[in-house]
Amino acid sequence: MPRKKILWLVSWYPNRNDKFDGDFVQRHAKAAAIHNDIHVLFVTALEGLSDEEIIDDTNYSTGLTEQIVYFKKPQGILQKLRKKMRWLRIYKKLAHQYIQQHGKPDLVHVHIPWKAGVIALCVKKKFRIPFVVTEHWGIYNDIVDDNYNTRSFTFKRIVKQIFEESMFFTTVSKFVGKGIQQVVTDKSYSIIPNVVDTSLFFYKEKQLAQPFTFLHVSNMVPLKNVEGILNAFHKLISFGANARLILIGNREQTFVKKAEELGLLNKTVFFKGEIPYREVAEAMQEANCFVLNSTIENSPCVISEALCCGLPVITTNVGGISEMIEETNGLFVPVKDDDSLAIAMKKMMDCNADFNPKMIAFNAAKKYSYSRVSEQFDGAYKSATSEIFHRIPER
């Protein structure tokens, strides 16, 4: 089958300001590029540029072009408005240039409708090119503080228009999909999960670790409730458990100090800071259990990565996590319940042999691997372009 030409308009993507911004969108792009030609467009402001300076960082790989464009971050009291207007002007121009140079794409694919979906609306109106949407943002609920219903009238009107004018939308979890249906528009959707690089994250036979190793990986923002993990682990150690806790990610000094106050730092609790993905995978392959204690989540990449390494998971049952964890691959604990988390950690140590790491990894790879996710994108594109073809009136 011929490869389709898909223009991706993205609101989040790794860039010079933040190398982790939308890294899951980038992994989706790499998956989609296995069977189709993907051109990613991302525009953002950058400090230190001259007034009219534009930097175009374009990267090419097989099937994937990543065009990341920077403009000067405006200053002054009207900087927000000026930034929005310049972003809109540059993004529209780049989309038009792409079509002039490469011809019309078979489809436009928006990732995170606010704000890149605005460009898709413009492209649809000018060139009559339909678009589909993938939403990763977990704001369609009443749990997060800055949820959809707290946003401005303009924000809600535009996001609603983007969803309604799309052919269909996909999400990485039912949690987000149902939320959109409830608060934005009752439109059909499908699930295409986050993707895992199973050439890095895979089950590796290991000797039983002594002591038993719990692992946590995150940016350690408040919703991850790392303090609760430290409190629970301290209780576990007070039970006489022979265990250690490794934390990877932002080395937040508040938590380092907390571990020191508990008498655990560099004894049974170890902070590794931000490390490359390969080293994260190695840490998962060496650990015995992954722990995530969040107050809200969508579909955490770290859980799918841990599962692909064969790790059972202890986690709160929030957001889309219930779609990832069941009795064969993990344990649930209540939100903000340190005692229950400590008990679950003890249970995991006592019953770890009941979990089959090879089967956990096998089942996860079937769901989250590049090959599987690429097939789902390809199927979605074939369905969309077939529908477009049948919409064309006979001459």
Question: Main traits of this protein?
Answer:
395 residues; 12 helices; eight-stranded mixed beta sheet
Written account of the structure:
With 395 residues, this protein is α/β, with parallel strands linked by helices. Helices cover 41% and strands 20% of the residues. The chain is built from twelve helices and 14 strands. The strands form two sheets. It has an eight-stranded mixed beta sheet, with helices on both faces. Strands 11-10-9-12-13-14 form a six-stranded parallel beta sheet, with helices on both faces. Strand 10, helix 7 (253-261) and strand 11 (269-273) form a beta-alpha-beta unit. Helix 2 (79-102) packs across helix 3. The two termini are 26 Å apart.
